[in-house]
């Protein structure tokens, strides 16, 4: 068989950038300073408490799961006096994200898919940064969110950094930021050509301008309505990963789901994705075999009733499990070849 240089180069690249999908690292980031509502920092603990790891252990083929615990950080003395206009809690944001980046890079270098539990979405700066460093920049990003998170400190109407992570990461927007002391570890690192949005429905006008001017791949709720979720994901992946050789980063803000599906979150917006669409999206990503890192953010157990919290966390766990291979078709028994059908009790319909 003749293999041309380009093909063999691609195969080598593919080997470098995929893991075998069976090893997973869980990282908690109990961080809430990217927005104003207390409670989102308890996201990692409630998701673990309500059984994430147990649910992942049920997945067919047995994942090798390692929980790396929670990220912690300490603000260095010289940063304590720094503030940046209209960027709330700047010194926390930069210090915590640096730790997040190092942890994600480390987990990926261990040959694991990195699942980061938030925390608010400002942590996306660290997770995408760490992913790109570990995979030598060969990364594409699916930002699943009601919001575009593309403000700079000059355009944000809130000063909340959870509305800014993609603008910090984007090469195309680097000139629109002032010098950010203590942020030298993070260079604007990704081209927005390698990013696609899914689920948008609450976009600020400056964000709209950037999306249109730069031609960012943005699939909003209207597109999901028009084409259906499978086609939308295919279109998104064809745009950001046409050669099917990139490590995929999914940054999933739980507010991408409709408020009825995920009520316990800080900036929820009606008219969003169903849980079914969220699960299907992640099943498609799982089947690519190229999921590298996965953030699940903005679950806030202090918002809503106990039932709201359970519903939201359950949705989050379903989405994570789908991305790691859980199948809605059910588990087959292990000794399936030798089992006589009679082993199963006859189905009785109780009316
Ligand atoms: N990750 C989020 N939930 N972001 C919401 C951002 C809301 C608004 N666009 C802002 O910049 O403040
Ligand atoms: Mn959001
Ligand atoms: Mn977000």
Automatic annotation (TrEMBL):
CC annotations in GO: cytosol; nucleus
Matching InterPro entries: Arginase, Ureohydrolase, Ureohydrolase_dom_sf
Catalytic activity: L-arginine + H2O = urea + L-ornithine
Binding site for Mn(2+): 121, 145, 147, 149, 253, 255
Biological process according to GO: L-arginine catabolic process to proline via ornithine; urea cycle
Keywords, comma-separated and alphabetical: Arginine metabolism, Hydrolase, Manganese, Metal-binding, Urea cycle
Pathway assigned in UniProt: Nitrogen metabolism; urea cycle; L-ornithine and urea from L-arginine: step 1/1
Cofactor detail note: Binds 2 manganese ions per subunit.
UniProt xrefs under CDD domains: Arginase
Molecular functions per Gene Ontology: arginase activity; manganese ion binding
Cofactor(s) the protein needs: Mn(2+)
Alphabetical list of Pfam families matching this protein: Arginase
PANTHER family on file: ARGINASE
Protein name as catalogued: Arginase
Annotated source species: Ceutorhynchus assimilis (cabbage seed weevil)
